[in-house]
Amino acid sequence: MTFFLEVLIGGLLSGVMYSLVALGFVLIYKASGVFNFAQGAMVFFAALSFVGIQINFGLSFWPTLMVVIILMIIVGVLTEKFVLRPLVNQPQITLFMATIGLTFFLEGLAQLVWGTDVHPLDIGIEDAPIEFILDRFDMVISAFDLFAAIISGTLVVSLAIFFQVTKIGRALRAVADDHQAALSIGIPLKQIWAIVWSVAGFVALVAGLMWGSRNGVQFALTFVALKALPVLIIGGFDSVLGAILGGLIIGALEKLAEVYIGPMLGGGIEGWFAYVAALLFLLIRPEGMFGEKKIDRI
Amino acid sequence: MFYRENGQFKISYSKDQALLTISQDKFFIFALVAFSLLIVPFIASDYWLTAILIPFLVFTLAALGLNILTGYAGQLSLGTAAFMAVGAYAAYNFQIRVPNIPIIFSFIGGGLIAAAVGVLFGLPSLRIRGFYLAVATLAAQFFIPWLLIKVEWFSNYNPSGVITTPPVTFFGFIIDTPVSKYIFILVIVILLTILAKNLIRSKIGRSWMAVRDMDIAAEVIGIPIMKTKLIAFAVSSFYCGVAGAVYAFLYLGSVEPDGFNIDLSFRILFMIIIGGIGSVMGSYFGAAFITLLPILLENIIHFLAVALSITISSAVTSVLQLLIFGALIIFFLIVEPHGLARLWSILKEKLRLWPFPY
Amino acid sequence: MRKLSFLSFIFIFFLNHLYAEDSQFFGIAGYRVGPYAAGGTPFFTGYIDYLKLLNERDGGLNKVNITWEECEFEYNTAKGLECYERLKTRGKTGPTAIHPMSTGVTYGLMDKAPKDEIPLITLGYGRTDATDGRVFPWVFPLVTNYWSQASAIIEFINQKAKDGIQGKKIVLLYHDSAYGKEPQNVIEQEAKKLKFELVKVPVPHPGNEQQSQWLQIRKERPDWVILWGWGVMNATAIKTAQKVGFKRNKIVGNWWAGSEIDTEAAGGKVAKGYYAATLNLSGSDFKVVQDIKKYVYDKGKGGNEKYLGTVLWNRGVVAALVTVEGVKKAQSKYGNKVMTGAQVRWGLENLSLSKDDLKKLGFGDMVPPIKLSCENHEGAGLTRFQQWDGKQWTVASDWIGGDKKLVRNMIEKSAAQYAKEKNITPKCL
Fold it and tell me: In Å, how far are A268, B123, B269, C10, C45 from B289, measured between CA atoms?
């Protein structure tokens, strides 16, 4: 029983890490209707810049963080200007392809500037079992995972409040609903998009720091974006809450499946289980749990 | 002026329904085919044949498959490489388990098995649309390589899950020199291209395009959506399967499932984006572009480095390629979202009117 | 489109002539970008640094100048094959020998390289049964192959474990790919012979999520874990071991999981106590490393000073050593000029480096003595073990051979099956 709880909790916490990445997707989809495939590359870019600046300029944690936030804002603004604006009325699939192009561009740029070496990232929290829980319940729960969960929770809550309560948040939702209507009532579209991409960049930075300290900052970091896709399917592409819940569900299901069903099939099912689960979910509910139901007008 | 159709009258129904109606087109295509079939094998170096032309042809085939599915039927798929893997492994199993089977049957068998798998993973398309479908095809992309490694029967119990293809013989000729491989693959590609072109012009092709444009309207006028979508998946996967089989047998020689990863799927997707979605010509252009671009970039950068006497490490070259590649995709999407094929049509239009601007 | 192709044809043609002088050309298909860049970069840097040393210190190979070119293939098999085709067109006699450094490319070149008469050196990886040179005359899994390594790992655990390995439980944590499946036959046989329990846990590619695997391991409570990974999987494994509280000094990695890349990415002190196999010692105390520092780096021609003495960089130097010595051996028979692929093949097959030879070349005990023959393309079959002390690798064992008879039996059986499938009659070239 404790083992089951262990796997479950480990899975939930792992899922929180997925939601961190999924959040970035949701933000951009919510506000500009673009499925930003480059989120993974942004995570990589942010993490690599962080360690790059830390190593090459010897700054400590908080100054580096400030610098990278500014860097991500610049990336966001430039992306909006050079990628989104020229493609304003194109079908969704074109924008999607453009973000794939952006992925390659960011990956190439990051490695060109900071090199292709692997770097460890230390944010001060050790990824070891919490002694207290280990002794009392004989369960392994990592301190780092718990920390990541708290950070993600805080981020989600603040983002949710931001969207609901603040003026900019409402403007974002308006833009997501209908660009032209938003324009017609005077919402500055370009500024809003720049803000959204910058916020997504910030989320990417947090995700990059978390994942980077977990696995080391290296090229494989871009693959975490792929894992976020099933999360988005289950949670819905445009729901912040959905990203979190979806992440939790996928994280838990994946780990439980690997541990309990995996050995029956020879193991290694984690690579595809999330996708198959998402696929089956889609057959029941094509928009995800909290996604906006699409009403097709003929 | 060069491309005018004046004076070309079609005097019979068969001439009207021919694939190439304009005589300039006919001449051009025949010249191209003759050139590639008769002249290129003699003037191209081994390097060009093995490293550039053969992969170009293989990827053209795969791009054709994806274009049928995504370009004509409108179902976005990210699992192309997985279907190629199915084709490769199926063809391999046919070849080694059925004694004395002609290689063409193995390829077709591989294609058919890939088609069956394609239909299976295409079933969700009846419920799901757009990006969600793309993610569903990703399920195929991750599941199939896993299955191919896990079930050892597929790789004939090889300890590492790698399949080494037996030599290819065609009516007694052993096909193992670059020239023979090139000609063999070229003939296969030409035949399948003609098939694709005809499929697209036919009733099934039109129903694909109807489904792509507005599937509810298509259903309303009586096009059977399920059949149409599933046939699209089947045909597309057939092409990808044959492409995978050719890739394994005639290009790589031995493959592991990891060689059919998501990177390859994306690469083929790029080929049709840049080449032109929904265009057979586009598959060719895209495949050529994606195959040649890295080599060209590398040689240019190398040349510049030597000319300017600076050492650029190969890592930098590679990373620069990524950067330029990404920038080019964005550039193409901004400038011409319909790809190189549209540019080609525009060129032909201009040739029609030359020397007048409009 | 055609203009582009024509232009590129001209470029390639032109570049060809840059290397047509009378020099021994070493073609290098490498990867410094992509998912395995961290492992590739130090290796290829070491390889080239050794070639540079020979030019600077010795004036080349018995007065024959050395040139090289690196082609980047990002660990992508199709690109690797294109690199191979391109390197084939360079140099007077082609690329001398190719180190594929990737399972996919190795398998892809199995049939091509012999036809092109280019020897393949798969230093510590690739097809193990290629050790039988009667079936694979052009492939050289030099120094030690995978199965010898796997057997040596078992023997190391046997030495280190309290009361030996019998009755213990061993987990094999492997990368779920062709590479990862490689040692399983050997270890399963050893499990039967030495009576220990083997549990296999696969990690799906790329391996940056191993929580469930390590929780499974925790449930199994094994005595030892063998880590057979590559790339990001290694660092993640070590970190996740810490996450579930599994002692690092009960983990033994293979030599593609045993470099500073893996331990430092996990966080130096996190990996403290971790054992790893190696076919070459790390460290800068060897004369050859000092020479490279003196003749190459101090003149500003080095690749990257921080790699000096690291495990993978040393391995690159060793790779260059065996290639160069193969050429030298060929020169001893065919004369002091540029050697062709076939001549280099002969040189490799008859290569013999004794302890004294290695000392003279400045390698000391970095690698074990090597002696090849037609039936034995491996040369040594010995593995050594190092332990990470938080900051660097320290030697933890002497050269271990493992169960040579068991391994040789399996190699001959597998090679015979390949020969049957491909209609080859095994014989010495």
Answer: 36, 33, 13, 18, 32
Q: Judge contact between A42 and A211, C-beta under 8 A.
A: no
Rounded to a whole number, what is the distance in angstroms from the first to the last CA of chain A? 53
Q: Is residue B147 part of a domain?
A: yes
Low-confidence ranges of chain A (pLDDT < 50): none
Q: Which of A122, A128, A259 sits opposite C245 (nearest CB)?
A: A128
Cβ–Cβ under 8 Å, residues C256 and C224:
no
User: Chains near C, with 3+ CB pairs < 8 A?
Assistant: A, B
Tokens coding C303: 């690749």
The domain containing residue C259 runs over which residues? 146-278
Helices A189-215 + A143-165 axis angle, to 10:
170
Is B318 inside a domain boundary?
no
Helix (H, G, I), strand (E, B) or coil at C252: strand
Altogether, the residues listed in chain C come to a count of 429
Nearest to C103 by CA among A85, B108, A286, B254: B254
- For C318-333, the pLDDT digits (tens) are 999 999 999 999 999 9
Contact C204 A128 (CB under 8 A): no
CATH number at residue C37: 3.40.50.2300
Enumerate residues 307 to 336 of chain B having a beta carbon within 8 A of any beta carbon in chain C.
313-315, 317-319, 322
Give contacts of A142 with chain C, Cβ < 8 Å.
243-244
Contacts of C33 in chain A (CB under 8 A): 111, 116, 219
Count of the separate structural domains present in chain B:
1
DSSP string, B178-189: HHHHHHHHHHHH
Residue contact B254–C110, C-beta within 8 A: yes
C177, part of any domain: yes
| Digit-coded pLDDT (tens) for A61-88 | 888 889 999 999 999 889 888 888 888 7
Our count of domains for chain A comes to 1
Task: Compare all CA atoms of chain A with the CA of B337 and give the residue at the minimum distance.
Answer: A94
Q: Name the β-bridge partners of C380.
A: none
β-pairing, C169-175 vs B168-170, is: unpaired
Q: Do C215 and A140 touch (CB under 8 A)?
A: yes
C107 contact residues in B (CB cutoff 8 A): 162, 164, 253-256
C236 and C288 belong to one structural domain: no
Rounded to an integer, the average pLDDT of C16-21 is 49
Residue A88's CB: how many other CB atoms inside 10 A? 11
| Residue B137 C-alpha, separation from nearest chain A C-alpha, in angstroms | 9
Token pair 């052009």 is found at C138
User: Hey, which residues does C202 pair with through a beta bridge?
Assistant: C174
Contact with chain A for residue C236, Cβ under 8 A: yes
Q: Supply the pLDDT for residue C21.
A: 54
Domain closes at, from C244, C278, C312 = C278
Q: Global pTM?
A: 0.87
The sign of the dihedral angle between the CA atoms of B36, B38, B44, B48 is positive
